[in-house]
Write a structure and sequence with these properties.
The complex is a heterodimer of chains A (about 425) and B (about 120). Chain A is an alpha/beta fold and about 425 residues long. Helix content of chain A is about 40%, strand content about 15%. Chain A folds into 2 domains: about 130 residues, Aspartate Aminotransferase, domain 1 (Alpha-Beta Complex), CATH 3.90.1150; about 260 residues, Type I PLP-dependent aspartate aminotransferase-like (Major domain) (Aspartate Aminotransferase, domain 2, 3-Layer(aba) Sandwich), CATH 3.40.640. With about 120 residues, chain B is of the alpha+beta class. Chain B is globular and about 40 Å long. Chains A and B meet through helix 12 of A and helix 1 of B.
């Protein structure tokens, strides 16, 4: 398997995206909502799917459908080959040495639960510490809280400054040798902040802690190479990167995964079973009990093909330009306050509050104008508590979004102010 | 834009019975953590009837309008009657179609009211 090189040099300017051609690949972008063209700005929740991914799902069910790793008939062999080829594509896409480092899960939440229940249960005890940050998604908080209640280790949180960046000054105190794992997000799903992964990872490793990266908002949007980042574990989901729902992955360094105990028992994860006990299978199947999401994995493989054809550096560059434009335009809306850092420190999403207007009301008015945004706490309640706001509105972009759509968003927000202003 | 009919916006911008009672018989606080809506409902009960009502809190236009309209409606009603209220009473007051996601906003005031009239003095928090 070849590992494509993805240089992250900023001097090399990637080619501009042909957004018009990209939009034509996404059937759903043709639909209308409340009689108006759909403006889909909820990509941090889930992305839309290109025709090639939808075709891969249909083709699989029409021509191949069979269970994997079991039958010796043609269909089963073809299904197994396609399913494992998708694993290889994903491994290569994130710069992993080998497909067996990719553990399929239902989604990123399940990946983080796997890490907690397998690695965490085997390695954490009273007196230990797991370090998280205040900007984590609930998926990277609750699995540790569940386990901590049982095992008695401590959870600490690296604080977030008012500008939406992590307060790095606290790191030496929190990485004092008791911390066994530092688990943090590459990019905040609320603030948009892109965290300094290399710097944080170096600090953790110097203190003897392992690093888990929640890369749900990063892998779909920018070049991510686990080898260059030198991290130990990484979770991400397929549906946010043009793939189907129901498929995600935990990546881990194979020497760590090899010694981790299984977490779910059942078919496919065993080498042999006797009435007296079992022997687990080898990587990656050791962690994959039961019939997996075969079509979804194959669909995710097609999504990776699409992203690689388009170019991750080009996607990232396009989103950076779009978010800079969006933040500039949003500043013209009276009473609008943006959460998080300046455009050059963030990815392609922006959360905001608008005077006293409840985000649900903002989202409902926008929906009437065909514009889909997210309103609520975006599965990051502690972060909203830290900013003392009950909820926020969020617009999140992807490769098919345009400046015209940003203009429609801003125009609609002026309308919101008009409706609700006292 | 049915959801934001004139009457709803009027109740949102000028909520009736917003504030506190001097001597509430029962106070009930409830919240919808999913959207951050919060309401504190105070009732003054005389002879098993609602003599006065006040509410505070914050929330979206739908939940605040529902609280305001409900407050106007329940004065003079008996506790027995209010115990029989259901979501249709609130939706009739609002007079709009509320979808499956926003229904929680619309019904938060009713939830607080039901807890107040059934619990009579017992706080849940």
């Amino acid at each position: 398997m070849s590992t494509p090189t993805r240089t992250q040099s900023t001097e090399q300017r990637p080619p501009a995206l042909n957004v018009e051609a990209i939009r034509a690949d996404f059937p759903i972008l043709q639909r209308r909502v409340h009689g108006l063209p759909l403006v889909y700005l909820d990509n941090a929740a889930t992305s839309q799917k290109p025709r090639s991914v939808l075709d891969a799902l249909t083709r699989y069910y029409e021509q191949t459908n069979a269970n994997v790793h079991r039958g010796v008939h043609t269909l089963s062999e073809e299904a197994t080959a396609q399913y494992e080829a998708a694993r290889a594509k994903v491994a290569s896409f994130i710069g992993s040495c080998c497909p067996k480092e990719i553990i399929w899960t239902r989604n990123a939440s399940e990946a983080m639960n796997l890490l907690a229940q397998s690695w965490g249960r085997a390695n954490l005890r009273r007196g230990d510490r797991v370090l998280l940050t205040e900007m984590e998604h609930h998926s990277n908080i609750v699995p540790w809280q569940i386990l901590s209640a049982e095992l008695g280790f401590e959870i600490a949180y690296l604080r977030v400054a008012d500008d939406g960046t992590l307060i790095l000054d606290d790191l030496p105190r929190l990485l004092d040798g008791r911390t066994k794992l530092f688990s943090f997000t590459y990019m905040s799903n609320v603030l948009g902040t892109i965290n300094p992964v290399v710097e944080l990872t170096r600090a953790a490793h110097r203190a003897g802690a392992l690093v888990h990266l929640d890369a749900c908002q990063a892998v779909p949007h920018m070049p991510v190479n686990v080898t260059e980042l030198d991290i130990d574990f990484m979770s991400f989901s397929g549906h946010k990167m043009l793939g189907p729902t129901g498929i995600g992955a935990l990546w881990g360094r194979r020497e760590l995964l090899n010694v981790m105990p299984p977490w779910m028992g059942g078919g496919d994860m065993i080498r042999e079973v006797h009435l007296s006990g079992f022997k687990p299978s080898e990587l990656p199947w050791k962690f994959e009990a039961g019939t997996p999401a075969i079509a979804q994995a194959i669909g995710l493989g097609a999504a990776v093909d699409y992203l690689e054809r388009t170019g991750m550096a080009a996607i990232h560059q396009a989103e950076r330009e779009l978010i800079a434009y969006a933040m500039e335009r949003l500043a013209t809306v009276e009473g609008l306050r943006i959460l998080g850092p300046a455009a050059d420190q963030r990815g392609g999403l922006v959360s905001f509050v608008l005077g006293d207007i409840h985000p649900h009301d903002i989202a409902a008015v926008l929906d009437n104008l065909g514009i889909a945004i997210r309103a609520g706490h975006h599965c990051a309640q502690p972060l909203h508590e830290r900013y003392r706001i009950p909820a926020s509105a969020r617009a999140s972009f992807y490769l098919y979004n345009t400046r015209e759509e940003v203009d429609l968003l801003v125009k609609a927000l002026h309308k919101v102010v008009e409706i609700f202003n006292f | 834009m049915d959801l934001y009919a004139e009457e709803i916006l009027d109740h949102y911008k000028h909520p009736r019975h917003f504030g506190h009672l001097d001597h509430p018989t029962v106070t009930f606080h409830d919240r919808n953590p999913l959207c951050g809506d919060e309401i504190t409902l105070e009732l003054q009960i005389v002879d098993d009837k609602v003599a006065d009502v006040a509410f505070t809190g914050h929330g979206c236009a739908i939940s605040r309008a529902a609280a305001s309209m409900m407050s106007e409606e329940i004065i003079g009603k008996s506790l027995d009657e209010l115990k029989r209220w259901n979501k249709d009473n609130i939706l009739d007051l609002l007079g709009i179609e509320v979808g499956p996601v926003r229904i929680k906003c619309a019904l938060l005031p009713l939830k607080a009211l039901k807890a107040a009239v059934w619990g009579m003095g017992e706080e849940d928090e």
